[in-house]
Amino acid sequence: MGTDLSAKWRIDKVLGVGGMGAVFASTHKNNGTRAAIKVLHLEYARATDVRERFLREGRIANRIDHPARVPVIDDGLSDQGEPFLVMELLEGMTLAELFKKGGGRMPLEKLLGVFEPVLELLEKCHEIGVIHRDIKPANIFLTKQAAVKVLDFGVARMREPDTSVEATRAGIALGTASFIAPEQALGMDKVDGRADLFSVGACLFTGITGERLHAAKTEAEEFVLAATQSAPSVARKAKDLPPEAAAFVDRALSYDRAQRFQSAKEMRTDLLKVLAGVRTGKLRAARKNATGVVVRGVDAIEEGPELSEAEQKDQRDRLASIFKQLGLAMASVRQYGLAHPQTQRALSQSYAEVGTALAANSYSVRWDVMSGAFLFEGHPVWAPDRVPFDRIPHQLFADGIRKVQFKIGLTEEELRDFVSILLRDVSTIFGADDDSVTALWDRRFEHVAYLAVDSFAEGDNLEPDRLADWNDLAEQALANARIDKDFDEQSLEEQALEINLLGRLQEAGEAAAALALDPATKATLGAQLAQPAQRWLESFVDGFVAAYVDSRRRGDAELVHKALREWTADQVSLHSVDKVFELHELLTRAFKAQLDPDEAKFLELETAKVVFPLEVLRTLMAEMSIERRAGWGEAAQPGATNEELVAGLGRALDLLASDAVFGLACECLDTAGTERLRDVLKPYIRRWAPGQEAQLTTELGRAGAELGRFIVELFVELKTPQATAGMEAAFSNPNIEVRLAALAAMGEAIGDRARDEITGLLDAPDVEIRLKTLDLVGAMNVVAAGPVLVRRVQSDAFHDLSVDERRKWLATVGALKAPRAESLAIELLSKRRLLSNESTEHSRMVAAEYLAQADSVEAVEALQTASKQRWGTST
User: Fold this and answer.
1) SS percent in the chain: helix, strand, coil, step 5
2) Both 273 and 190 in a single domain?
3) Do residue 430 and residue 400 come from a single domain?
4) Residues 264, 195: one domain?
5) Residue 72 is part of a domain; what is its CATH number?
6) Do 455 and 277 touch, CB atoms closer than 8 A?
7) If DSSP codes are grouped into helix, strand and coil, which group holds residue 612?
8) How many folded domains does the chain comprise?
9) Average pLDDT, the chain
10) Contact predicate 40/82, CB 8 Å
């Protein structure tokens, strides 16, 4: 120390050393000014791109007008040729040092206060297109005057018009693994301001929990985790955190940046709300205060008779098994969606588990909701540790849900909707603004009971040993809700309550009397209001169309589109698919009645795109395909497949004709569970098949039996060179039925290839495959299989087959060509050997049975000849 850096500056001491440079406290040799000087190591200074990025820090920092930035007042080269930046000398500590000093954590109020100016600075940065890209505790500085400063804009990137300019070069990692957003860890080019907001969330996570977001043994592992893993909920690590604060941090840490705060301004606004709540004491995780108020419940939680310790353990095991299966179902929903067959199977298995438990004990499927787990009699039965499922108990608890129970009569549809509510933050079925209580209330479950409390009341975060208080509270709420309960005339309290109640009733009566209508007026207005539901709907549609047209002229159509999307999502969640088609049909009629034809056609298509995006179409078709199953002991209900639904789906498919919709129609045909749905999908696919040969070829190679056979049929009809070439894909399909359909369609045209394909199937070591092939060959009239079948029947190997299989071979030849089968049977029956054996005699018996069903003269003569006793034959 005390050495000269350049002609102007003398180094006093080292403030910090990094991988690419160092920061020194320095003094100006002429005027004595104290400053911090950041020097780039010489080996990096030789790389032009690194050097440019280092010097860019000064240019970027000085473009930002905010007290939280550290201005660069000068730059230059050291005597050794190292570039350096001269900045304001700060006295204080970094946030990382403060975390370490405080045992890894910081009080919530103080922590939020630190990031308010940070977000304000980021708002300024993002306005001019500057992304910091390395927000972390080590780059947040708190001065002795309690000012907050954001350091190190060296990694910051200007969103310049020249998109070929890359801020990342091989061998240099930009950002710190535990604090960078997933898209940044993945090396995406289009990193925007939301990456900085994720980093702020990661800093908050660390300050609240005392742990890094993605803790791993090496930095490389941390980068992998940052790129591939969703952030765990902060609620899992900080059980005493107010739900509002947990929700704030979790939103900032969303893996999908579309789910995060969309601007620093929005995040800062919400931070200030949370901070105000913490400062005023309204956002406390009050464990010791009085319990909250029951605000909503459906039916009563029924606990049944008191259970022995063994019975409690049995019910805990049953619940754990149920939630294990439900966990698999929810994972399938996340990966494939609700309508996928695998999801349907997983939900059906979960439903069966619930049914078994309810059959054993009708009160057994109930649980208490705590912040990190579901409990039964104080013992955890589900404590998910994988994201995003680990957030489910905390979210329900934060929303005020305290108890849930499944009751006798629960339907599979109710179970599916309940799972949708649990996953509402990652599904499109419920709006993002709905809380759990609202979603449960809107669904109107008949066989799902729950107890909810005011989630803002003190006492939200009860310990398990205080759950009994909630039971007492629920019983008290139910008792208080009865207006016919016994009245104690001797109680001064109840007399006072009665006086107050009567007074309120009198005031209400006087107010009602003042507003009362005479009978004639009441009757007239009643008649005008008592319109049928269809008329109300038509009136709504008329008004909607006028508002929609006006909103388009004003450029606000997206507001209407959003409302339509949310309404459609609600109808899908309630399985009211008929209403979705009905509304679009009414809108179409109104467009045609009120607008000129061109505009009406345009709006019909535009609203179809809004109401029927691909995922909604997929769900609607799944709803039309599946059979509705009722509760135990009740009759199954048919799927919603009436003529109006089929017609509505047909119109929607025609309007939205595209490659994506065509592919979706093919996909849904393969899983269609009803004939009516197939009847609308097949004509649509047939109508749009010309020109789609390439996509159909791709589908043919992986299609199931229904779709595969239909594509083969289409290719035969199309007769285009592309269709003929595409038929080859059928032979790579694992489904025997599809391969045989192709052979039936073009067997003679491909000659030896057909023989080889059929021989391979009929020589399969698995007898079930051979029998299935024989059935299909006969049913589908695969004439090309005839020669292969005849040769096998005439071979000695034929006698080694089981008797039933021999019958099947002969019958299949008969299905293809009856005279040839008859001649084969006569040949078998007439074969005599000097020394017969049981196998050949069984073959003769099979031949005789076949000929007994024939009516030709040759068959009768062969049977008569065989019936005569001859030397060397068996009797």
Assistant:
1) 60, 10, 30
2) yes
3) yes
4) yes
5) 3.30.200.20
6) no
7) coil
8) 4
9) 78
10) yes
Structure tokens at 377: 């009699």
Q: 66 and 191 share a domain?
A: no
DSSP track, 134-155 = ---GGGEEEETTS-EEE---SS
Closest residue by Cα to residue 9 from 21, 59, 31, 17: 31
Q: How confident is the model at residue 747 (pLDDT cuts 50, 70, 90)?
A: low
Q: Which has the closest alpha carbon to 74: 53, 54, 88, 90?
A: 88
Q: In this structure, are 246 and 332 located in the same domain?
A: no
| Highest-pLDDT range among 294-303, 566-575, 667-676, 764-773 | 764-773
Give just the sign of the alpha carbon dihedral 453, 458, 459, 461. positive
- What is the CB neighbour count within 10 angstroms for residue 543? 11
Which is nearest to 395 in space by CA: 435, 429, 430, 448? 435
Structural domain of 178: 94-159+173-280
The phi and psi torsions of 104 (rounded to 5 degrees) equal: 95, -15
pLDDT higher than 80, residue 333: yes
Q: Do both 24 and 39 map to the same domain?
A: yes
In DSSP terms, 366 is beta-bridged to 405
The candidate with the shortest Cα–Cα distance to 416, out of 400, 427, 432, is 427
**Cβ-count burial 367-393 (b if 16+ within 10 Å, e if not):** bbbbbbbbbbbeebbbebeeebbbbbb
Smallest CA-to-CA distance from 116 within 278, 345, 227 is with: 278
Q: Which of 287-291, 377-381, 439-443, 609-613 is predicted least confidently? A: 287-291
Apex 416 CA angle, 413 and 421, nearest 5: 125
Q: DSSP character for 414?
A: H
Q: What is the CATH number of the domain that holds 121?
A: 1.10.510.10
CB 551 within 8 A of CB 559: yes
Task: List Cα–Cα distances, 587 to 394, 545, 580, 599, 611, in angstroms.
Answer: 42, 7, 11, 13, 11
Is 769 part of a structural domain of the chain? no
Asked whether residue 829 falls in the same domain as residue 789, the answer is yes
Pull the structure tokens for residue 333. Answer: 């929903």
Q: Which residue from 138, 161, 176 is spatially nearest to 16, judged by alpha carbons?
A: 138
Report the distance separating Cα 713 and Cα 80, nearest Å.
Answer: 79
Distance CA(12)–CA(734), nearest Å, equals: 76
Beta bridge partner(s), residue 39:
22, 84
What value does the mean pLDDT take over residues 435-450? Answer: 82
Task: Give residue-wise pLDDT tens across range 677-692.
Answer: 888 888 889 988 999 9
Q: Which whole-number Å values give the CA distances from 273 to 199, 246, 394, in the listed order?
A: 20, 13, 21
Instruction: Report the residue count for the chain.
Output: 875
Single residue among 87, 121, 142 that ends a domain in this structure: 87
pLDDT digits (tens, 9 = 90+) for 336-387: 777 777 788 888 888 988 988 888 888 889 999 987 889 998 888 998 877 6
Q: Judge whether 79 lies within some domain.
A: yes
777 in a domain, yes or no? Answer: no
Q: What is the pLDDT of residues 167-224, one digit of tens each?
A: 443 333 355 788 999 988 887 767 899 999 999 999 999 999 999 888 777 777 788 8
Residues 6+ apart with CB under 8 A from 454: 292, 293, 294, 295, 400
Which of 30, 56, 87 terminates a domain? The answer is 87
Q: pLDDT exceeding 90 applies to what percent of the chain?
A: 14
- Per-residue confidence band for 395, with pLDDT thresholds at 50, 70 and 90: confident
Q: Which of 277, 223, 228, 279 is nearest to 248 (CA)?
A: 277
The answer on 319 and 196 residing in a single domain is no
Residues sharing a CB contact under 8 Å with residue 420, sequence separation 6 or more, in sequence order: 333, 338, 427, 429, 430, 573
